[in-house]
Each structure stands twice: as structure tokens, then as C-alpha cells.
Amino acid sequence: MDVHVTLTGRGDLAARIYRQLREAVLDGRLRPGERLPPTRELARRLEVSRNTVSIAYDRLTAEGFLVGRVGAGTFVCDEPPGRTLLRSAPAGGDVRPRAFWRSAAPEPEPGTAAFPEPGTGAVVPPKPGTGTAAPPPYDFRVGVPDAGLFPLETWRRLLARELRAALVRPAGYADPAGHPGLREAIARYAGVSRSVRAAAADVLVTAGAQQALNLVGRVLIEPGDLVAVEEPGYPPARALLRSLGARVTGVPVDAEGLVVSALPDAARLVYVTPSHQFPLGTPMSLGRRAALLEWAARRGAVVVEDDYDSEFRFEDRPLEPLQSLDRGGHVVYVGSFSKTLLPTLRLGFLVAPASLRPALRAARRLTDWHGEPSAQAALARFLDEGLMGRHIRRATREYAARRERIVAALQRDFAGLLDPVPSVAGLHLCARVSTGVRLDTREAVSRAGAAGIAVESLAGYCGETPAQAGLVIGYGAITPERIAPGMQRLAEIVRAAVRD
């Protein structure tokens, strides 16, 4: 490893090399067992005599920081004395973020604490000694697909092929709109599976739905603009729009979806999940879809349609997306492969009207230029070879069986406590607190977490007050055999949390 040593100014050069290498060992920059540069090489780089470097190395060796191995070189000792690990960036006490970021709830950094769960902020404790979040025994978290269903070997084969091909291509930056083959594949896939009206030129590949919303917001929203979201709705979308300087207002959702008549006239943008409302799960009726498109055309507003979880459908025929009904170019359609494949792949897309495409491409280029071309090319082949359809059919059967167990448990163990919200798709179910029942769902969720049950409160998805009372129960991450005992334990906790 290259070691940075500063020798500007006056003083004993060997002593300065010694002190800086010693500090690097103490604060962890040079790790136990790590090989240092040969004395001749370091002397050449520092433009000093080899003897000067040798004096520093010999002193560090004598003090137990380094060890020499004949024929191999000089290494940091496996157990160097007095490691401190105190090196960090300056505190920056006079430097402050914007007001929004000062009030935003910070997420613990990976490796230092547990990860917060969507909606409620409840956490899964880290696995002892690892610094990583351990899955709870009864994992009813929302928005978490089953990684075991991911076709890893197939994906590995496709990705390896693209990585090999990348080695013979000239190095350079890729198209901000995404891999051309993937854009074509997405246009076909979304057109066949969801009736989305799009050509490859209309598609922009993103790092998931959240980046798609960020790009749309960046090109459309001025600070102070009014933006409407569903209530209850997706908290990260609400927070992202607020971070862009928008005034965000919640619009109620009923059995037919977003209440269009409650939309504020001044709203510049509306974010909706019409195919599978998040988190309630109800689809937006055809009448409401038509009313929303009429409202957007009349107001010159943009509707961001997040087609959340629409792939996993268990009953009924899917309604047409807003984008396929839109004739005025007011809808931006957002899709993601985070639930169908894996969230860690960070692959999604948006389909935008032609008037927005140049600005969105520019925003993507300014944000992170482009995604990972090899992964995008692998996904293109995954779609073109029909592997996505095969995977979704298999996953849908598995998730349908888990959903049936959740529904049965709600009807059996939670009768008179929770009323399931009708839903025909997705990876979770929502259940509202029954009329007349006094239940603090946040308290119930906290008690459940202490008992090894990860579940979420509907209140965590509400931005307005009073928050709605209920539970949101995911079934993507939990194994089938754990559903019944987990739901039974959760029912006991809920009953104990009911107030007389």
C-alpha cells in the first residue's frame, strides 16, 4: 500500500517518518498484517536516503509496531501496542446543513448501529459482534422481498458475461439515460405486462424509484411549490419532496384511491401509487383515474405514478396505469426492480413525456452521470430472455401462499381487534384498528420488537394528524412456517396493549 508521509518543513526526517507511520498504525489506517513499502521504494518516493527510512522502520520494529520477515518484507504487527482508532474528520461546528436536514431523523450508519425500518423508525438490533442488522425471528417488515427467491446463479452468469465484454470496450462514460438495450427491453416489458405506452427513447434508467422521483422533482419543483401526496403514503417520497424545498400536503385516500376533489388547486405535482396504494393496498378506481388526469390537464400539473408492487398480483385483473390513459403528457410513470429482484441492485426506470426528457437526462448526468452499465446490460438480457416473467410467476405463487396464511391469521387471531384492508397485490397487508378498540399501535409495535417480531404501525405512514391506527404486515421476508407462530405472538401483544 502507498503510505502518505509529509516531510515539508524542518526537523529530523527519520523521526518525522517514524511519527507518521506510528500514528497510521495507532489510528487503524495501517491494519495488522499489512505490508509496508520496501525501504528503497519509500525512500525514492520521499526523495530521502534509504538509511533515513531504515532508521524509522527499525525504531517502529523495536517498539513492537512493525515486524520484518526475511524474504517477504516489513509488516504491521498482528497486535500492535496501544491502538486508538481516534482518527476522524473535523467536527465543523460552524458548518450547518439547511433547516430540513437538521430536523430530518438521521439513520444510523451501516456497521455502527441498527438500521431503521420503513415508516415507523423501529429498528432491528445488530447481530452481536458483527455490526450488521440481524433479521428478527418473526420478520414482518414491509417492502423486503425474499432474497432466497432471487435467481442468483442465472444473474451471476449474465453479469459475468457483461463484465467480460466490458474489458474489451473502450473506457468512458455511458449514456445518462441508461444502457440502450435495457431501455428497449424495459419499453417492451412494461408495454406487455402493464400496457405502458413507451418506446426506448421514452425510458430513463434510474437507481430505483427513489432516484426517479428525485430527478422529476429536481426538474419540476421550485422552492415553495405545493406538492400533493397520498395520506397515508410513502414516507421517503414525502421526505424527498420536502428536501427539494416543496410544501408537501397530504390528500386523503378512501376505498377508491386518492380523493381527487380534495387536491389543492395550486399543487404543481401529485405523487400517487394507483395500482397498489402504499400502504393500504387498495387500487385507484377507473373513475378516480379519469378524474385525476382531468384535474392534471386543467391545472397543468404533473402526476408521478409509482407503480409500486404491481407485479405480484393474486386476484382480479389489473387496471390500466394512468400513463396508458394519459393523452396530454401529464404523467411520469415510475417503476422499480427492487421488489421483483433485489433492493441492493438499485435498478429502476421512469417513462416521461417528450417535453421532460432532455431535462431529466441532464439531471441524471449532473446527479451521478449514469448507473452501472454491466448490471443494466445483464438486466436487459434477463428481460429479453423471458427470465423475468418466469421469476415473477414463481415468486407470485410463493408470496400468494404466505399472504393466505397472513389473512387466515388476521381473521382467526385478530378478530375484533384489526380489520384487514382489501388488497389483491404486493408484499404486505394493512389492517386498521377495529371501531371502538383503543389501541396504541406504536406501543404495540415497540413491544413486538422487544419480543423479536418486526412489524410496522400505520401511523408511521401518516404525515397529517391525527394519524390513522393500524398495522402494516409484510410477508416478503418471513418464511412460511414462521407466519402462524409469529402472528399468534403478535396477537397476544396487541391484546395486551388494548386499553380498557
From TrEMBL:
Residues 11-79 form the HTH gntR-type domain. Gene3D superfamilies: Type I PLP-dependent aspartate aminotransferase-like (Major domain) (3.40.640.10), Winged helix-like DNA-binding domain superfamily/Winged helix DNA-binding domain (1.10.10.10). InterPro entries: Aminotransferase_I/II_large (IPR004839), HTH_trans_reg/aminotransferase (IPR051446), PyrdxlP-dep_Trfase (IPR015424), PyrdxlP-dep_Trfase_major (IPR015421), Tscrpt_reg_HTH_GntR (IPR000524), WH-like_DNA-bd_sf (IPR036388), WH_DNA-bd_sf (IPR036390). CDD domains: AAT_like, WHTH_GntR. It comes from the Bacteria. The keyword NAD does not apply. It holds the Pfam family Aminotran_1_2. Residues 104-136 are annotated as: Disordered. Keywords: DNA-binding, Pyridoxal phosphate, Transcription, Transcription regulation. In the C-terminal section; belongs to the class-I pyridoxal-phosphate-dependent aminotransferase family. This is GntR family transcriptional regulator. It comes from Streptosporangium pseudovulgare.
